[in-house]
TrEMBL record:
Residues 97-302 form the Smf/DprA SLOG domain. GO terms for biological process: DNA-mediated transformation. Pfam families: DNA_processg_A (PF02481). Belongs to the DprA/Smf family. This is Smf/DprA SLOG domain-containing protein.
Length: 346
């Protein structure tokens, strides 16, 4: 087996410089769930056409990715048939899928160790290219934490900052509500298939994000149900899209701490909001050198000017909602998705 760590940079360079995979090839590899992100890139760099993928057997795929696949057999013809769901989903407006080497792929997301090979999106693609601020925390905040997350999302949006979170219960949802309440732009990264906002109670909020000109993103294709291991993986994308991470209230252990750790590894600003300074996870972050902040002004003072991609608007000026966004998107969230999924707890 080859040493994957030693060849990562060369692999990503080949992905950027090599031929663009055909769309059916992208969707086929996106459907093969056992693959890790860098393995998907390796397979698509090696076989960028669906005919090439159809010609590979299980042993050849193992040779390409450099490890055995014992649990799931490589069945390219079934994968190609399964992409019918993807093509149906992508046929509607404001839906897209990006390959790692696509010029429209967020350049800052490429900086994480294992960037998504494919990024499925719903909404305004241009907003995914702007670096934002991640607002994260527990699914069970107290009233002070929820209020602080809402206010921070609101104030950052008033300053023209994209707010990034995971559309989970608690802090994530409060921050997104604040952002949309100010007419600002939110990016929500799902830990499930791109067509299934989880939890279902946040579907109206997802619709608001789209109607305000934001976007919903996932590395998982339509119909993939939420599973526990997918949420920590989602957090690396939240951080990869951001110039700073603000943790509001985080117990230990928690997904918010995973996000903070990704931030420290990536070299982005990691901050703790004063509303959660006494929480065990936040205390550990402060002891490790995270900055304590009380609101949007403190956050913007810490992040280097220009990193957020656009000049901030004056604090007194509200952003206008996304241009002529149709209010019909909420109905699209009312269905449970095209493949039934079960609720999970994380």
């Amino acid at each position: 087996m080859r040493d994957q760590a030693c060849t990562r940079d060369d692999l990503l360079r080949r992905a950027l410089e090599g031929p663009f995979p055909e769309r059916d090839a992208l969707l086929m590899v996106g459907r093969f769930s056992p693959l890790r992100p860098l393995e998907r890139i390796r397979l698509l760099v090696t076989a960028p056409q669906p005919e090439q993928l159809l010609g590979l057997d299980h042993y050849q795929v193992e040779q390409i990715i450099g490890r055995p696949l014992r649990r799931t057999a490589w069945n390219p013809r079934q994968l190609l048939a399964d992409t019918e769901l993807d093509r149906r989903w992508l046929s509607l407006d404001e839906r897209w899928v990006l390959w790692f080497g696509d010029d429209r792929y967020p350049s800052h997301l490429r900086e994480i160790y294992d960037p998504p090979a494919l990024l499925y999106g719903w909404g305004q693609l241009r907003e995914a290219g702007r670096r934002g601020v991640a607002l994260v925390g527990t699914r069970q905040p107290d009233q002070e934490g929820e209020k602080a997350a809402f206010a921070t999302g609101y104030d950052l949006a008033r300053h023209g900052v994209v707010c990034v979170s995971g559309l989970a219960r608690g802090i994530d949802a409060a921050a997104h509500r604040g952002t949309t309440g100010a007419g600002g732009t939110a990016l929500a990264v799902l830990g499930s298939g791109i067509d299934a906002v989880y939890p279902a109670s946040n579907r109206p909020l997802g619709a608001d994000i789209l109607d305000q000109g934001g976007a919903i993103l996932s590395e998982y294709p339509p119909g993939v149900p939420p599973q526990r291991h997918q949420f920590p993986a989602r957090n690396r994308i939240v951080v990869g899209l951001s110039a700073g991470v603000v943790v509001f209230q985080a117990p230990e252990p928690s997904g918010a701490l995973i996000s903070a750790e990704f931030g420290l590894q990536l070299g982005v600003d990691v901050m703790v909001h004063a509303a959660g300074a006494s929480w065990t996870g936040c205390l550990r972050l402060l002891q490790a050198g995270a900055s304590l902040v009380e609101g949007a002004r403190d956050i913007l003072d810490l992040i280097a000017p220009g990193v957020l991609g656009e000049e901030a608007v004056p604090a007194g000026e509200l952003l206008s909602p996304g241009a002529a966004a149709e209010q019909t998107k909420l109905a699209l969230f009312d269905s449970p998705g095209e493949i039934p999924s079960r609720e999970v707890h994380r």
